[in-house]
Amino acid sequence: MKLSREEVRHIALLARLGLNDDELEKFREQLSDILENFEILKQVDTTDVPPTRQPIALKNVVRGDEVAPSLPQEDILANAPREEEGCFRVRAVFE
Amino acid sequence: MPGLVRIAILGFEMDYETVIGLEVHAQLLTRSKMFCRCSADYAHASPNTHVCPICLGMPGVLPIINQQAAEYTVMTALALNCTIPNFSKFDRKNYPYPDLMKGYQISQYDAPLGIGGWIEVEVNGEKRRVGITRVHLEEDTAKLIHRTDPSGESYSMVDVNRSGVPLMEIVGEPDIRSPEEAREYLVKLRNILQFLEVSSGNMEEGSFRCDANISIRPLGNTELSSKVEVKNMNSFRAVYNALEYEAERQRRVIKEGGSIPQETRGWVEEKGVTVEQRSKEYAHDYRYFPEPDLPPLVLDRAWVEEIRSRLPELPDARRDRFIEKYGLPIYDANLLVTSKALANFFEASAKNTTKKRAKLVSNWLLGEFSRLLHSSDIEIEESKLTPNHLVGLLDLVEEGTISGTTAKEVFEEMFHTGRHAPEIVAERGLEQITEAKDVEVAVDRVLEGNARAVADFRKGKEQAMTFLVGQVMRETKGRANPKLVSELLMERLREG
């Protein structure tokens, strides 16, 4: 089962990646290979195996509701390509 | 029946009903954020001052669940008659949007903290249960501010303070049949959250937000038709108006032979209309998967029952108790439980007292007190007037020390200054004159000085009596008991 170019384009969009035609074809091959391997895994009978939601056997890791100091504003904005009035400035977004 | 409208389609007369389901997001009143220790109290903070690497979504950080937030959510779910599953977990909801620092939101997908509850709402005297599908916990997003450059270029500004504040989502079943019911449901839900003290419930400040799904269908149909999601309603009135408008709009479209596409519309308050929202360029493909950084929650039954045992008395129970214990009319009891602070104020003022006195307390609170709070634009918690003040005032009225009219004046002064009634009464000489001989002096003086009115009364002019009573009240600066005044006047005039 091979992914369509449309599907690869959609996945790239979700990951915010711009792909040219060569890359599109390259990743179509690679992603399809990965999926084919999952097809093989799907042949294993897992009827009596509960789904794994967490690879490590931890549960109920919580903390108390205590406040600790935040970082200074200038540290938070240190990596911002553009800032304005203490905010990150980004390209226009609409709801 | 509410929400029923007759529409003629192709010559058929058809009845349509409105179907509404509400989703509420409520910020929880924890001190720290959901997954880090930044302060969750960001309302008056400068932008990006309540931020750390975790809520900024830096690579390699490790979120940890705030237990208090989980507890508040379980508490709410229990109060909404939900079942608390044994197992709950967090998931990543992926979408690329600048208000999410990580490119995903930590939320709960298929194992929420509460499932399958209900709220009872009452509209026009009819009680109905509205189902609660689920209650889950997630993190709030950053705040975006949209601007335009002098050059005309538009851009957005991101303040991350709100990002990571615990947000509880309460998803209701599509059981609501009218905008009135929707409003009642919201008022009730907010009231419950406030009684639980898990959320401020402030809609204007955005700590209590509501989105609605609304559709119409031919009456008798049980299938749901394609629904429209309505957003951007930030008051109860806005929810009501937006749903009224949207139900009407959908009926009109159907009547004109059109169909309703599944879409998201935004309420535009100033124009009183809903408009189609520009859809994001990408598909809604959230690709939920279990959050690998957060181990699941196994909800111990003893812990759940311990939380249940700590649930405070909820508004409906408290209303019923006010009626039963204090003999209040339903109307009064309903109003008193609209705010926990008001209900507490009532109980503190009415404890160990008669039903008659409890009703007086209720009258003062729902009348003068509410009026003064409103005109001074303050909350009960900020009021200088306490239950002790009110009890002191009612004692003076009951003893006959001051008249009802004077009491109003004293109440207002207590409200503004925080001084107690006996002090105000003594200082301003407001005691009611109840000693007959003191009133007699005033009566005699008035009779001497108003020979004409006396003559009029004797000729049978009833109004002359009213005038004379008024004169005596004036003479005593309003402190005489009016009943005693007219008795004494009658006596004297008959004698003469």
Characterise the protein shown here.
The complex is a heterodimer of chains A (95) and B (496). Chain A is α+β, with helices and mostly antiparallel strands and 95 residues long. Chain A has a domain of 46 residues: Histone, subunit A (Orthogonal Bundle), CATH 1.10.20.60. Chain A is built from 3 helices and 3 strands. In chain A, strands 2-3 form a two-stranded antiparallel sheet. In chain A, strand 2 and strand 3 form a beta hairpin. Chain A is flat. The model of chain A has no long low-confidence stretch (mean pLDDT 91). Chain B is α+β, with helices and mostly antiparallel strands. Chain B has 2 domains: 302 residues, no CATH class; 60 residues, Arc Repressor Mutant, subunit A, CATH 1.10.10. Chain B is built from 15 helices and 17 strands. In chain B, the strands form 4 sheets. In chain B, strands 1, 2, 7, 8, 11, 12, 13, 14 and 15 form a 9-stranded mixed β-sheet that branches. In chain B, strands 6-5-16 form a 3-stranded antiparallel β-sheet, with no helix packed on it. In chain B, strand 14 and strand 15 form a beta hairpin. In chain B, helix 7 packs across helix 9 and helix 13 runs antiparallel to helix 14. About 1% of the residues of chain B have low confidence. The chains are: A alpha+beta (95), B alpha+beta (496). Chains A and B meet through helix 1, strand 1 and strand 3 of A and strand 3, helix 1, strand 9, strand 10 and strand 17 of B.
